[in-house]
Amino acid sequence: MGGDLYALDFDGVLCDSCGESSLSALKAAKIRWPTIFEGVSSELEDWIIDQMHFLRPLVETGYENLLLVRLLLEIQIPSARRSSVADGLTPEAILEKWPELKPVIMKEWNEARNELIDLFGSVRDEWMNEDLSGWIGANRLYPGIADALRFSSSHIYIVTTKQCRFADALIKELAGVTIPPEKIYGLGTGSKVEVLKKLQAMPQHQGLKLHFVEDRLATLKNVIKEPALDGWNLYLGRWGYNTEKERKEAESIPRIQLLDLSVFGSKLK
Ligand SMILES: [Mg+2]
């Protein structure tokens, strides 16, 4: 026996989807809050999309992009403000304080997580149906990933907060690889901690070396808190959606190895 099992995050590890998720969020925000987004100039839209790249390390689940888009608008347009936090707020401050800001705006905007998730998914579905190549083209796999997935001799699982159908479509189209549905754990399949527990318990995985690659430090810290997951090798991908501050912090945590993209590609093979 022996061999390696890789549990891989999707966005920020395999795929740079920031352009797509920001544009989808803007489309969805216009549907959800039409009066607030009415008359917004294309310059302001460009500024919002630009800031979304800066704020991307905050996003754990896609619907949060919608919240960020609206909050950025409230920062710029006082008359659009319906939350108590936007006055004097900056993108830098959002980056610092997002875990505190998020529950406040959800409450003050009277929004429900599941409704935003459904809306975000349906906007993507519509974009995919109307213009598949445009939607695919707004995403890209990081350099070397397509070959690494194609030629890997390891057991590969995708563990993502994205809805499975989108991860599946992107891997098929961009890497030319089909990953069987039972190897993609997407939104709604439980937390990443739960998924890793499931994977390590499967009889066919006994004796394998376990590796989990993520770009979100908070997720790795959740794994470290679980003694049952002590057997996993944990990696933070430097190329993904994390900040310099988070990479520094990760360097001080013995359990976590920082990984460069080129090293990751060759590890998978
Ligand atoms: Mg990620």
From TrEMBL:
| Gene Ontology biological process terms in this record | SNARE complex assembly
One GO cellular component term: lytic vacuole
Query: GO molecular function terms here?
Result: SNARE binding
Coiled-coil spans in chain: none
Query: Protein name, please?
Result: Uncharacterized protein
> Origin organism of this chain?
Apostasia shenzhenica
